[in-house]
Write a sequence for this structure.
């Protein structure tokens, strides 16, 4: 499979997307890790309580978790890149101020609280919940699209009149494509 270059990024990259950021996991690496080994955290299985050493880059991720795919199969990585940028800001803040017990400025507090909020909304269960929230509007839009295809000319005119009554110029509308994307990848309409 050949990779495409779009906006300077190899599209085969950024497939492994963490729902618990690697920069956050690195804090929990075993301090007794030998210098010749990749730093690791301990993962314990719930039932057996047996621990395994795992590098943060190899855990708590899924393929294309935050990727929005378009109709042509292209990959929009804006969410993944946005989260990556936030993670970089947090890692820098932790290294330069939090670990050194330096008082945080207002902008630092904003980075920290945004990072914590992102930790909450990017879990697999929260992503599934948000996707489920978009199911009903998507079903309604699909049903309306079917009705439009089979409607008589008079019914189409009536629908157009109803649509013009509800239109607003504030730009606060969702397209079918946007709702479909939001159902598959939450928050894709809001980036």
């Amino acid at each position: 499979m050949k990779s495409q270059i779009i906006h300077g990024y190899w599209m085969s990259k950024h497939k492994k997307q963490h729902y618990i950021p690697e920069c956050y996991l690195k804090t929990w690496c075993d301090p007794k890790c030998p210098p010749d080994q990749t730093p690791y955290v301990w993962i314990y299985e719930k039932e057996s309580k047996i621990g395994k050493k795992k590098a943060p880059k190899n855990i708590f991720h899924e393929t294309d978790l935050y990727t929005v795919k378009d109709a042509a199969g292209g990959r929009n990585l804006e969410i993944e890149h946005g989260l990556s940028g936030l993670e970089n800001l947090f890692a820098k803040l932790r290294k330069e101020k939090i670990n050194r017990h330096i008082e945080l400025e207002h902008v630092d507090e904003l980075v920290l609280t945004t990072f914590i909020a992102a930790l909450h909304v990017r879990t697999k269960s929260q992503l599934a919940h948000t996707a489920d929230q978009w199911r009903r509007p998507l079903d309604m839009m699909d049903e309306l699209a079917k009705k439009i295809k089979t409607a008589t000319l008079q019914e189409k005119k009536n629908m157009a009149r109803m649509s013009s009554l509800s239109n607003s110029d504030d730009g606060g509308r969702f397209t079918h494509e946007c709702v479909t994307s939001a159902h598959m990848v939450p928050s894709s309409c809001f980036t």
Observations:
- Helices lie at 22-25, 78-98, 106-121, 124-150, 153-166, 176-184.
- The mean pLDDT is 83.
- The two ends are 29 Å apart (CA to CA).
